[in-house]
Amino acid sequence: MRFGLIAHRLHRQGTDCGLLRWLRVAEPVVNGLQLGLHAVGGTFDAVERYGLLDAFPTLVRYPNGFEGGLTRLVSHIVGGVHPSQALDGIVFLIDPTDPSSLFPEAQALKRQCVIHGKPFLATEAAAQEWLEIEGLHAGLASAPAAKAALLQAMPQQVVALIAHDALKTQMVEFASTHFDLLSRFQERVATGTTGGLLNTMAWSRGWPQGQPWVTPYRSGPLGGDAQIAERVLDGTCQKVIFFEDPHVARQHEADIQLMERAVCSASTRTTCMNSPAMAWRWAEALKA
Question: Considering 88, 95, 98, 225, which one is annotated as catalytic?
């Protein structure tokens, strides 16, 4: 397994920056999974500067972003020019105030991860949790304790369930299949139509009639994404499961980016899954 690794300047400056915090926690799982990390220039240089190269001897250096490093990562997410170049996911610790987060290369990197069902992990919390999920699938020795900790945290967490029109049926199927797991959360929230569909599903599953299984907000185009973004920023929504359709133009693209940038602003406490493939792999790892 091979992951691309990028960290904006905010996350790679100082001995307690997000990149170094994640690498220190990740080291045993990275080594246990034999996970190859392929870092864009500035990120690689930070790992070297702070003396962690010995802990990650297989770390590969890509060119700097402005020299084509991000473009190469996009190519390798879709399979690369040669099969040996293919990457299985991306850890991209994003600073939402960094203008490069809106550059075409960064947008294309995330979009291609969604299209190909590969993890795009844009926060420190998401990168840490996803390693634990992969460790569960691989049966690492640390897996039972990691699973217990993830399940134990759910009753104190709120999850947002969001799906674009073409993927609403898939969201209902996902939520129905993993109903018991999702019901562990303290609260579930959703945007407009998705919330209505999920509540109907829950009532058909025996959830008390008239008692919402999810708290529905406005539809995305009418401001629901902004309402969920506010909860993320307030620390009252810790996980976003977002079935994003990358193939259609969205009239409310700015609202979607607003919500995603709010998630990145809460990097140490919020996780986001952008595709059905990610959500199913997460849920399968945690099912009883």
Answer: 225
Q: Which two tokens stand for residue 246?
A: 């990358």
Give a yes or no: residue 207 inside a domain: yes
The answer to whether residue 225 is catalytic is: yes
Range(s) of the domain holding residue 77: 2-122
Of the candidates 176, 181, 177, which has an alpha carbon nearest to the alpha carbon of residue 153?
A: 181
pLDDT per residue as tens digits for the range 91-125: 999 999 999 988 999 999 999 999 999 999 999 99
Residue 214 lies in a domain: yes
What is the pTM assigned to this prediction?
0.93
How many domains are there within the chain? 2
Question: What 3-state DSSP class applies to 226?
Answer: helix
CA distance 89 to 121: 8
Both 280 and 167 in one domain: the answer is yes
pLDDT of residue 116: 95
Whether the predicted pLDDT of 51 surpasses 70: yes
